[in-house]
Amino acid sequence: MKTQRYIVQLIIILLLLPVLNANSANQELKIGFQVLPPFIIKNNNQYTGVCIDLWNKIADSLNIDYSTKEYELQELLQVVEKGDVDISIFPFIVTASRMKKFGFTQPFYITNLAFATKAEKHNTLVLVLSNIFSLGFLKVIISLFLIILIFGFIVWLSEYKHNPKQFHKGIKGIGDGIWWSTVTMATVGYGDKAPKTPLGRIFSMIWMFTAVIMISSLTASISSNLTINKLKSEISSIDDLRKISVGCIPVTGTAEFLDRYRIQYTGFNNVEEGLTAVNEDSIKAFVYDEAILNYYVHINKFDEVIKVIPSSYCKEYFSFASADNELLKRIDEVLIWIIESPEWETVLEKYHIEYRN
Questions:
Q1: Domain 118-123+232-315, what architecture?
Q2: pLDDT value for 220
């Protein structure tokens, strides 16, 4: 009799298990975050941003009910570790020390550490002269002359037997070919030298198209170089940060990075305070994530005075965080699908963030 009763109870439990799991899955989740534009933006007590849009899509896909609460960063770290919130949708940087305390979803955005520093404007004439007399410019000129020489020689070789009046024999004739090649490249076309043979004209057409592309590329390269170098900085690498006054936000992945490299820094409450300090020359550089620095430099109209220099030393992986590994697995299945869809690029562009594969 007891055996039958146990069997009946077991059957009832097995039948009710899917229902219990469904109820558990539909329980209201507690969501924690900190405001960090452009990933989480607060405006008139309304929240928008990359992480908000991403979480809404995940919650809709998994049919999740949730409530949200805003925290300061230090408190958010604590409540995630203790499990007082089910998941944080703040873009936490994945670090070794944090992975010992709680879990992370798959990264939804990868960026670099960068530093914002006061840009020094330089005179355009000085920049032009420095570029003209630079080693890089000299290499370009030598390469260009070699190509002119090659095409000039080929056309001379095709012409000097059939067109001796314009393309003479010997060294003088090679000079004729180089002169023709130069004026053709410059699109001057004096008309004093003109190939007449079919082979010469074929090479002439090839050279004309090649020259147009080369001159356009050279002009664009010089213009770009001048534009970039109008904003110069005394900082070019992480090692330079040891020689200057640096700022960052404490208890962040950036602070951990600076601590690891033993770089002293002044703490600031937020990115805007740090950038203001850079603008006022209170510090020489403010170190933080590249995407966020670019966003704040733009919205605070610091584009002309502050330059954001990315670092190749440290890649940063942005993820949601939770102490519930089962919940993270459920979220990952949807999150990966979203960030691999074309829709994800649209979300990033909406908040002026560079899309990266």
A1: 3-Layer(aba) Sandwich (3.40)
A2: 65
Architecture of the domain whose range is 2-108+319-350: 3-Layer(aba) Sandwich (3.40)
Cβ 290 vs Cβ 112: under 8 Å? yes
Q: Take residue 186 and report the two structure tokens written for it.
A: 């410059």
> Is residue 6 over pLDDT 70?
no
Q: What is the pLDDT of residues 182-228, one digit of tens each?
A: 877 776 666 667 787 888 788 778 878 787 777 777 666 655 554 44
Domain with CATH 3.40.190.10 in the chain: 2-108+319-350, 118-123+232-315
How many Å apart are CA 243 and CA 357, to the nearest integer?
35
CATH number of 124-231: 1.10.287.70
In sequence order, what E strands does the chain have?
29-33, 41-43, 46-48, 66-70, 87-93, 103-104, 109-118, 120-121, 231-232, 246-248, 266-267, 285-289, 306-322
Sequence-distant (6+) residues with CB within 8 A of 271 are 249, 286, 288, 292, 293, 296
Strand partners, 30: 67
Using alpha carbons, list the distances in angstroms from residue 100 to 39, 143, 321, 353.
25, 55, 12, 30
Per residue in 45-96, pLDDT (tens digit) is 899 999 999 999 999 999 999 999 999 999 999 999 999 999 999 999 998 8
Matching residue, tokens 């879990």:
103
Q: How far is CA 214 from CA 48, 210, 217, in A?
A: 46, 6, 5
How far apart CA 121 and CA 119 sit, in angstroms, is 6
